[in-house]
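testing teh design pipeline on a random one, pls ignore if ur not involved
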């Protein structure tokens, strides 16, 4: 396997020689690569085919290419920020510039940094009520469940909802998968330790009481349970 930067440059030269800008991002740039890490490459082009995303294996690496025009980059980046999951601007802001015609890559990096510096859009009153309602129903599902098989799936969704409420409620971006673990740990190591202890208690011993207590405790910080009185008007999701 050749070095990540060399592989990314070969890919750009072979597949996108006409591109205006190319940025290598992801774990290989952050110094966090593992044996299964891929190369995340943002390509800025004038091609009418963009935007699109493609995945392939080349030069001993799995490669994920995010191909955009300058206009589609900004459209997707703003959408990411509105969803509170700034994948594209974050990748570009921390990425390694491999090609930069007329300073475009540098300009987009600066724009991405400015977007991120504005921070996370706070929860609206409706969004907070929606979170509380969804978490309340999941808590009740878990309390009432007599099936450990079902518990696995309920807990997966419950931790996702509670984790993102904690993150956004504390001014952090939403997260999924491994990023949920990293984000919660960075936010509050004590809280993260409590959550891990509760999850291990369930997965090792089948004891869900610690997790129920954790979620009830954290939910109270945001107003507590919500069921009676919750209402969704016509036209609302």
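output:
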């Amino acid at each position: 396997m050749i070095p990540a930067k060399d592989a990314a440059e070969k890919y750009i030269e072979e597949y996108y020689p006409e591109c205006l800008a190319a940025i290598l991002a992801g774990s290989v740039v952050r110094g966090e690569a593992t044996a299964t890490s891929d190369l995340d490459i943002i390509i800025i082009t004038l091609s009418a085919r963009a935007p699109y995303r493609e995945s392939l294996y080349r030069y001993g690496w799995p490669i994920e290419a995010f191909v955009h025009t300058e206009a589609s980059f900004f459209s997707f980046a703003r959408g990411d920020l509105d969803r509170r999951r700034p994948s594209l601007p974050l990748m570009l802001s921390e990425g390694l510039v491999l090609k930069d015609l007329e300073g475009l890559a540098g300009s987009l990096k600066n724009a991405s940094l400015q977007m991120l510096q504005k921070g996370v859009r706070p929860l609206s009153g409706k969004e907070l009520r929606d979170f509380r309602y969804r978490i309340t129903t999941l808590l009740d599902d878990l309390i009432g469940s007599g099936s450990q098989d079902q518990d696995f799936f309920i807990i997966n969704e419950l931790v996702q909802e509670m984790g993102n409420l904690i993150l956004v409620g504390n001014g952090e971006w939403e997260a999924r998968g491994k990023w949920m673990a990293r984000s919660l740990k960075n936010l509050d190591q004590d809280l993260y330790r409590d959550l891990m202890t509760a999850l291990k208690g369930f997965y090792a011993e089948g004891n869900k009481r610690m997790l129920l207590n954790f979620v009830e405790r954290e939910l109270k910080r945001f107003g507590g349970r919500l069921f009676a009185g919750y209402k969704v008007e016509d036209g609302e999701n």
